[in-house]
Write a structure and sequence with these properties.
The complex is a heterodimer of chains A (199) and B (273). Chain A is an all-alpha fold. Chain A contains eleven helices and no strands. Chain B has a domain of 171 residues. Chain B is 70% helix and 0% strand. In chain B, helix 4 packs antiparallel against helix 12 and helix 13 runs antiparallel to helix 14. The chains are: A mainly alpha (199), B mainly alpha (273).
């Protein structure tokens, strides 16, 4: 029965004391949220920690939850802030870069990423057997994602894993819609370029 | 290069490639930990301090003190009112008459001391009945009665007997029941009441005071008919004096009160006009 419920209804049911509603909600988001975090931070152990923190935040914030937006937007916004907190706490330069809203509204072709992506092993440059041995396709994609700027990678992951629209991505990341759209365009261009032999 | 649709921020081919490898998931241990935490939070909410349930004792806590104070005030007020309630009125005197009697007593009180010397024979303890009269109608009746009936050795003995019993001047209410016991005992109680504060008491042995006291004489008080006749005559004299002074309204009012108090008393002709 709860399988037909919307995310928001499940969260409201959990707020009202229905533990099974939370189970259903968790099942829906466990993989996508985890992959978002794993791809964003690039560290499985850190992803585990952040992932648990985010769900605990969801549990604690249940009393204040109001379905003003889609649940996916709400939980990915929590995840976004948790990542920023992590970066700031560990004094990573990524934090300012990640939280910035107007940093990437320009082409980043000159920052060296494209050269690195192009230099990644590709099927056209090596034999298929060697490619299979050295890199799997997943690794290729993972590397291509890792080479994206954080904010571009985030926008791509929010769309792919969270299924968010441009407006929802803008809300979750605290940027404007056009900024989100621009980031998405750059991310896709770079991914297509680096993965062109696989497309 | 294919530009993604404006409202769909994904590239289908890139998306397909990404999804082929996007299989990472949290471990079962993490799942279990998070689900347990979620259930524990709900259990804590239901058994611990849930907001909805916590409001109930909060309401009680908030209103407990005001309710207790209100109850205390109500109880105190009730006790005070019960304590101040006058004793049961004498059977022969109606409430309006009692009220009038008290008023007369108060009005004439100022005359009291000056009139002491001119009063009919009444010894000091009997004159001290005035404070008791001011304190309450029945007591006033008894005290004034004592003044009218005069003193005798027997009365003095009874006064001496009754005084300790009444301990009286603390409350005229204690003297009031004594008035019901009989005309001979009531004066004693009233005297006992006035004995201690004799020097403070306005004494009013005037005919008006006597008559006012007579208005409330209980039926079972059995007053002396001779003194009653004197009192009535004095009252009529006063009414006549009022008429002569031109205070017709006052005289008429006094006459009405006189008739009410002494319905069987034969009025002189001058009052029958």
């Amino acid at each position: 029965m709860r399988g037909d419920w919307s995310d928001e209804r499940l969260m409201l049911a959990y707020r009202a004391g229905d533990a099974d509603a939370f189970d259903a909600l968790y099942r829906r988001y466990r993989g996508s949220l985890y992959r978002y975090l794993a791809q964003q931070c690039g560290n499985p152990a850190l992803a585990d920690e952040l992932y648990q923190d985010i769900w605990i935040k969801v549990v604690k914030a249940r009393a204040d939850y109001e379905p003003l937006a889609r649940f996916s937007t709400w939980i990915y916004r929590i995840a976004h802030h948790r990542l920023i907190d992590h970066y700031r706490r560990h004094a990573l330069p990524t934090a300012a870069h990640f939280a910035g809203n107007d940093h990437d509204d320009r082409e980043e072709g000159g920052d060296g990423n494209d050269e690195r992506i192009v230099s990644l092993p590709a099927a056209g440059h090596e034999t298929p057997h060697a490619l299979h041995e050295r890199r799997t396709m997943a690794e290729r994609i993972g590397l291509a994602l890792a080479d994206l700027p954080d904010h571009q990678r985030e926008v791509f992951l929010l769309a792919e894993e969270g299924g968010l629209t441009l407006d929802e991505i803008a809300t979750a990341t605290g940027c404007g819609r056009e900024t989100a759209k621009s980031r998405m365009r750059y991310a896709l261009n770079k991914l297509r370029h680096s993965l062109r032999d696989l497309l | 290069m294919t530009e993604p649709p404006q409202e769909s921020p994904t590239d289908p081919e890139v998306s397909r490639l990404y999804r082929q490898q996007a299989t990472a998931e949290p471990s079962a241990a993490i799942d279990q930990r998070i689900l347990s935490a979620a259930r524990a939070a709900l259990a804590e909410q239901q058994t611990g301090a849930p907001p909805a349930v916590a409001h109930q004792p909060g309401w009680w806590q908030r209103w407990r003190t005001p309710l207790a104070l209100a109850t205390t005030v109500l109880l105190s007020l009730s006790l005070v009112l019960v304590g101040e309630q006058p004793p049961a009125p004498a059977p022969s005197a109606s409430r309006p008459e009692q009220a009038r009697t008290a008023k007369h007593t108060e009005d004439r009180g100022a005359v009291g001391r000056a009139a002491v010397g001119a009063s009919p024979p009444a010894d000091q303890p009997q004159a001290a009945a005035a404070p008791a009269a001011a304190a309450g109608p029945p007591a006033a009746t008894a005290g004034a009665n004592a003044a009218l009936t005069g003193s005798s050795e027997g009365d003095r003995r009874q006064q001496a007997d009754a005084a300790p019993a009444s301990l009286a001047n603390e409350s005229a209410l204690q003297a009031a029941p004594a008035a019901k016991l009989g005309s001979r005992r009531a004066p004693a109680a009233a005297v006992g009441a006035g004995a201690v504060r004799d020097d403070e008491a306005p004494v009013d042995p005037s005919p008006t005071a006597e008559r006012a006291s007579g208005l409330a004489v209980p039926a079972n008080a059995n007053p002396d008919p001779r003194s009653e006749g004197q009192r009535a005559a004095a009252w009529l004299d006063e009414i006549a004096a009022l008429r002569r002074a031109g205070r017709i309204d006052d005289a008429e009012r006094e006459l009405r009160e006189f008739r009410r108090a002494n319905p069987g008393y034969p009025l002189p002709k001058e009052f029958l006009r």
